[in-house]
Amino acid sequence: MSPLSRCKEVISSSPPENGIRDRNEISRNALDISKRSLICHACQLELQSQKTDFTYLGHTFYADMLRCPGCGQVFIPESLVKGRIQEVEMQMEDK
Amino acid sequence: MVLRETFSVCPVCLKRIPAQRVVEDREVHLRKVCPEHGAFRTTLWRGHVDMGTWIGPEGAPIRDPHCPDACGLCPDHKQKTCCVQLEVTRRCDLGCRHCFAGGGHADPKYGHEPTLAQLTEDLVRLSVPGQTLVQLTGGEPTLREDLPEIIAAAKVAGCRYVQLNTNGLRLATDPVYLKALVDAGLSFVFLQFDGTEERIHERLRGQPFLAQKRKAIEACARHNIGVTLVPTVVPGVNTHDLGALLRFGIQLAPAVRGIHFQPVTHLGRMPLQPTDTDRLTLDQLLAALVQQSDGLLEPKHLVPSSCDHPLCGFHGDFVVTPERRLMPLTKRNESACCAPATAGQNRLFVARRWERPKEYGPEPYCADLRHMDTFLGRVKSHGFTVTAMAFQDAGNLDLERLQRCSLHVYDRGRFVPFCAHHLSPLHP
């Protein structure tokens, strides 16, 4: 099971006082990782931002990533994989 | 002991003849016999690195090659074009001791010079839109007043990168001309730069040019045009200065994007017929460079060419740290030889370092290169290549190497491997 599927998302913004939530706002927040918290499915603990090491071709880099304080699983958003991580790999690789 | 059967040419008559790479007292020599002009022996390797390990597994030796007769890219040629050279003039404002192009005479009346219309036609024919890296060379290209128009024509023809091969003297003194080159689409510059001491420039180029070379680098930096230093390395002239050259380049990063060492080759004009002591082998260059680098480089960070034949060059990819050290990205894997790189892969590899980024993104918020974002910013702004290319002449020409050449000269509709294009006899 991938780390992604083991996480259960929770919308972090509180509902408006009148109790009516803007559906568009919910859907926007759901797509924006920075605006929601993630719960580890196995441990039911909220993921926390922590310095995380990545090793590739003998070099180690770090970035702040969401990690489960219980089992240590890290959530890596697809946007990061296809963005900065891929860019680091490309820069590290020889011809 | 014979390492390899191959083919070469007679250094006198240039006829194709069989040749052998032979190990003798740790050194590797190319031995060949011309029925008319006798036996020849040229040193290829001096044993600083194990040649077999450096080359890796080799396929079957070449058989019955046609090259270099009427050389253009034929079905036997094993590599596509990485960089194509287009000679825009034979004129030059210097009369260098060594010149593979045999250039000279600044006078426009000297020799044939293609018109802008002819060059435009050539550029359309040689260009693969969106891919081509064209190097404008000479003679000295900046003697042409219409060089901006030639660069613009290259861009219109679809060339992705336009590189200028220059002695830099005009770039140092003519800001209006340089701006015109930049506005026309110049991508990056290969700057003739032989040493950090004036006496080196005096011996190889005839005058103390160090100050002008610095000005050329500064001028290019003002336009965000990357400069790669290109020293011709001549035994007894600047072989002691390799480490200083490296440190000079590192100090001037990011304006300087790398150093491309070229051991002297005996093509075109040369002061004397070469003896073995006049040759600097690739392994000799590598060992001297590492030894003089004061720990900046280790041998494992310089790897054999995977685009051309491994005996034709090496490369290393680095990031210049804020402390002006080198963070190595390349690492030699001696247990398994890497697959040969395609010409396209090699083109992207060198261009991504030699071209300065137009946008640098946000300033990194820490100086630690292990931080992913800091590394990404720094590798783009301060990426640095240490490369070498060992050209071949009539003495050491190995047709197996020639068949893997990716540096081609465009000549009247043909793409000709560099060393075949400039091949000239060495008279004993």
What does this molecule look like?
The complex is a heterodimer of chains A (95) and B (428). Chain A is built from 2 helices and 5 strands. Chain A has helices at residues 23-31, 78-92; strands spanning 7-11, 36-40, 48-56, 59-67, 74-75. The model of chain B has no long low-confidence stretch (mean pLDDT 91). In chain B, strands 5, 6, 7, 8, 9, 10, 11, 12, 13, 14, 15, 16 and 17 form a 13-stranded mixed β-sheet that branches. Chain B has a 4-stranded antiparallel β-sheet with strand order 1-2-3-4. Helix content of chain B is 27%, strand content 23%. In chain B, strand 3 and strand 4 form a beta hairpin. Chain A binds chain B through residues 54, 57-63, 84-85, 87-88, 91-92, 94-95, and chain B through 303, 306-307, 317, 329-331, 338, 341, 345-346, 349, 370-373, 375-376, 379-380, 383.
Care to give the gist of this entry?
The complex is a heterodimer of chains A (95) and B (428). By secondary structure, chain A is of the alpha+beta class.
What is the secondary structure topology, with strand pairs?
The complex is a heterodimer of chains A (95) and B (428).
Chain A: E1 7-11, H1 23-31, E2 36-40, E3 48-56, E4 59-67, E5 74-75, H2 78-92
Antiparallel strand pairs in A: 1-2, 3-4, 4-5
Chain B: E1 2-9, E2 16-24, E3 27-34, E4 38-45, H1 51-55, E5 83-87, H2 116-126, E6 133-137, H3 147-156, E7 161-166, H4 169-173, H5 175-184, E8 188-192, H6 198-205, H7 210-222, E9 226-230, E10 232-233, H8 242-251, E11 256-263, H9 282-292, E12 303-304, E13 313-320, E14 326-328, H10 343-354, H11 372-382, E15 383-389, H12 399-402, E16 407-411, E17 414-417, H13 418-421
Parallel strand pairs in B: 5-6, 5-16, 6-7, 7-8, 8-9, 9-11, 10-11, 11-15
Antiparallel strand pairs in B: 1-2, 2-3, 3-4, 12-13, 13-14, 13-15, 16-17
